[in-house]
Design goal:
With 176 residues, this protein is mainly alpha-helical. 79% of the residues lie in helices and 0% in strands.
Length: 176
């Protein structure tokens, strides 16, 4: 009988903690994932997968601490796995037919459409490093912990990514 109460208590604690994480990180995580995979619906699905994984972990180990870094690392790994499953090593090509008006309204900037396209050309590891440091505001050390690498590797990925982004954005500006 005590086992039933213990199980119910674990479930309740896990649910409360995950609910708090969802309230705090759902929008941020979904935006981060959308920038990685280029699809809002897929990003929402992937973010829900992260919160479901968090729930399962917390149900098994209620005292375990799950940080924002854990959430972003799980999200990044999920996005990279998704792209590999779909054989999208390079993110979506530039000539993809996107609803440009929807992106402009959503991002509040016409330039963001071109930036989104340029970000999709980056390898997933570089994209994750740029998004974590530039968009999510993590330091190189924090991004390294999230991605399971060194801070030097993060800085190198960001440097290479920025170089490529500058090139792509310059090319797009000449075309426009």
């Amino acid at each position: 009988m005590d086992e039933v109460y213990l199980e119910n208590d674990r479930t309740g604690v896990a649910q409360m903690r995950v609910d708090a994480m969802v309230r705090e990180y759902q929008t941020k995580l979904a935006r981060y994932l959308r920038r990685m995979v280029g699809d809002a619906e897929v990003a929402l699905d992937l973010s829900q997968d992260v919160f479901l994984a968090a729930y399962r972990i917390l149900k098994a180990e209620p005292e375990r601490e799950l940080t924002a870094g854990w959430l972003y690392r799980a999200a990044t790994n999920g996005a990279i796995s998704f792209m590999r499953r779909r054989k999208i090593v390079r993110m979506l090509p530039l000539d993809r037919d996107v609803d440009r008006e929807q992106w402009r309204i959503d991002e509040r900037s016409a330039a963001s459409v071109d930036l989104q396209a340029a970000l999709r050309r980056l390898p997933p590891e570089q994209s994750a490093a740029v998004l974590l440091t530039s968009y999510a505001g993590y330091s190189s050390q924090e991004a390294a912990a999230i991605l399971g690498t060194t801070s030097d590797a993060i800085r190198q990925r960001v440097c290479r990514a920025m170089r490529m982004l500058r090139t792509v954005m310059t090319e797009r500006a000449k075309i426009s």
